Amino acid sequence: MKVVVDAFGGDNAPLEIVEGAVLAVQKNKDLEVILTGKKEEIEKILNGKEERIEIVDADEVITNNDKPTEAIRHKTNSSLVKAYDILKEREDVVGLVSAGSTGAVLAGAIMKIGRIKGISRPALAPILPTKQESDVIIIDSGANVDCKPVNLLHFALMGSAYYSIIYNKENPRVALLNNGVEEEKGNELVKETYPLLKNAPINFIGNKEGGDFMSGKVDVMVSDGFAANALLKGTEGAVSAVLSILKKSIKSHTLSKIGALFMKQTFNELKARIDIQKKHAGSPLLGCKKLVVKNHGSCKRLNICASIEQTMLLHKNKLVEKIEKSLANLEKAEVNE
Question: Which spans in the chain are helix H?
Fold first, then answer.
């Protein structure tokens, strides 16, 4: 199985990206990785650790300051565009991993790979922890700011298929993000989307508020990219603030410092639980003809390794085919109405 990795995408490129690829190859004997980027720099980092790692030279880099569509069109020798060319042209390459510019990754996916037939728009689906043992995904998390009801319907189908593979759970619970749980509440987009999800071949559990997001009662939260991204960033900010306040409070009292020593294992478990990037790798861009996984720009080697393994898992469990089957089931349901 071959996965192509954009070695010069992200804040910590190329060192952390290359080392992440090395880890993935060491852990998975049936894996080959193709690294795209400046060959000499990649070779220095590898330092002879090139077993089952191929390098494709690319001397340009797409940055966050570049306009995504123009960069994909004109920076043809960039590490990201080279990676997309390989993904498109080589049947033996099953997916792409990049921590580069989100806009460029999205533009490249649409322009170079294309959407699954019937999918209106691709969508990002990051994973977050809940207060239960389960996790939740939110789709779309920012790729599509302005949406129509049909977009949210497709997000629900793709999110359900993705969650069922990652957690081996049939019929995950799908909810619609709203400002109330009642069916008649919400803006026009939510009101028009509700009956579509209600009649779709998914386990739709109705409207849920932002406070229900991490309750453990929802597996897939569906929303437009604007509201979902606001919820996601607000949640991240709130968690960071609480941890900062807790740390400051502990340091301000002698007894608290002593107590913290006895709770060290508890704090470590908490940190591991909320460090969702490291645990769950990147966010797949669902709806493309081939697998594309977008990492956070600040990710490091463990995250890259996990993202490569995530790509392998999604390919082995035929995510693209599963989404296509969900669309076929939706068409059947609409015909039978």
Answer: 15-27, 39-46, 68-74, 79-89, 102-108, 149-166, 188-198, 225-251, 254-262, 264-274, 276-280, 301-316, 319-336
Q: Please, where in the chain does CATH 3.40.718.10 lie? A: 1-119+287-319, 124-280
Round to whole Å and give the CA distance between 114 and 179.
Answer: 34
- Residue 290 tokens read as 């081939």
CATH number for region 124-280: 3.40.718.10
211 SS3 class? helix
* Cα–Cα distances in angstroms (integers) from residue 302 to residues 28, 42, 89, 295, 309, in the given order: 14, 18, 28, 11, 11
Task: List pLDDT tens digits, range 151-209.
Answer: 999 999 999 999 999 889 989 999 999 999 998 889 999 999 999 999 999 999 999 99
User: How many degrees, rounded to 5, is the angle at CA 112 between CA 110 and CA 117?
Assistant: 55
Q: Between 15-27 and 39-46, two packed helices, what is the crossing angle to 10 degrees?
A: 50
ω into 59 cis (within 30 of 0): no
**Domain 1-119+287-319, classified CATH 3.40.718.10, yes or no:** yes
As beta bridge partners, residue 126 has none
Residue of 167, 95, 157, 97 lying closest to 122 (CA atoms): 157
Dist. CA 81–CA 104, nearest whole Å: 9
